[in-house]
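Macrodomain Ori protein
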Amino acid sequence: MSDTQFRHGKKRFYDNTKFPRGFAKSGDFTLAEEEILTLYGDTMLGLESGEIVPDNSEEKHFVKVLENPGKAKTKLERIWLKYIQLARGRKRFHTLNGRNKPEATEDYSDDSVLVEED
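Tokens:
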């Protein structure tokens, strides 16, 4: 991503609490997305928290996108929004059991069966 004005982070970005094995090994990010997060994630986190002031138009737009995610244009912005959703949003949990209980239950116990004898 050499065509971007976005600053590289001062250090490589990792999230060992939510993605302890790395972004790509989590299955949620591609290798290219992992590379972008590790290179630019420190800067994006600083811009989001207000620790870093935007230097150029691309970084200013990034800060606006954080307030209004529908305006995301660049790959950096979309990947950071994806990271926020996965790291800070609720995890989806799928189960085989339904949430609703059956309305009527029938009794199929042995003593309710009538047997006719000759």
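The first helix runs from residue 31 to 49.
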